[in-house]
Amino acid sequence: MNSLPAFLVSVLFSLQAIVCCQAWSPHQSVAGRIHRHVKTSWSINLKANANGNTMDEELWDNDQSFLPSRRSWLLQSAAALTVMAAPTFASNAATSDAKVTDRIFLDIKGLGSEGPKRLVIGLFGNEAPQSTSMLKQLVDSSKGLPAPCKPKAERTLQKEQLEANKVYNTCIEAKDKGVNYEYSQIWRIIQNERIDVGSVSGKFIAREYPNWQEKENNQLLHDAPGIVSVRKGNDSGFGFTIYPGGGSNAVQALLDEEHIVVGRVENLELVQELNQVPVIQSSKVNYMGLTGGPTTKSAPTRACQYGGPMYCNENKPLIKLSVMNSGVL
């Protein structure tokens, strides 16, 4: 009778015992259980060979009353291996199943000459209640999202200190008005990876950023074009990100890790139009110098200096894309 290699038989037998019989401590790792049983089987196999017998003979001939037929035993072993090999993941809900509880809009100017185009977003108020509430306040130009002023910056040079004082005083004068998206911009586009919306206008650049967080992670992923999310924490500004689709698994995984999915865009054709907008590829290039202009780079703009990286040039659209109006539908 033909037989399987002794070591393979012993491993299959051990794995079947692990899965089918459940004879182990619940606190022991799967890897540890497999290692222990394979090691034991290897030891048994060596002893059997030393005695002049093969594991096949011991399995199939010496104890037929204990073992099932070879065919049924192999089928059970294959099933056991399938169970052992099946990976386990945290349950992630598909965004297509998430319920839209609220709808907001942003009218974007700069795409063509026919006037602003309306971006409509459905928000997942059940999965991201806090973020949904904050976005609804940000699109409300009459009230906005309350946000205190940043502390006054201290500069070494007198000229820079005067500028810092001016920015701070302007913020204090308008501190009672909440931050909103009116005249904010789409400030970064990385094709197929992200479209970043909501760099607020100058009167709001000195405000403290909100803390984007949820009491419970909603497990929603960037699994389709048009997914809208906000970056976790308080260093990402007042805006949000649209995933245009087509990004690598690594891009999606990074967004899933760092962002909270809060909704999805309804009109995907506008998302694809934004995704194709040309951008500045490197802020290190002096474009004016290349065309015969000044060869020295200018100092950072006020928005870049006080508002943070989102107001600087890398991946900035070459055409100005502004939010002219926004609200709740």
TrEMBL record:
Key words, A-Z: Isomerase, Signal
Leader sequence segment: 1-23
Matching InterPro entries: Cyclophilin-like_dom_sf, Cyclophilin-type_PPIase_dom, CYP28-like
UniProt cross-references to SUPFAM superfamilies, sorted A to Z: Cyclophilin-like (SSF50891)
GO molecular function terms listed in the Swiss-Prot or TrEMBL record: peptidyl-prolyl cis-trans isomerase activity
Keyword Plastid: no
Domain PPIase cyclophilin-type stretches: 118-328
Pfam families, per database record: Pro_isomerase (PF00160)
Entry-linked PROSITE patterns: CSA_PPIASE_2 (PS50072)
Protein name as it appears in the record: Cyclophilin type peptidyl-prolyl cis-trans isomerase/CLD
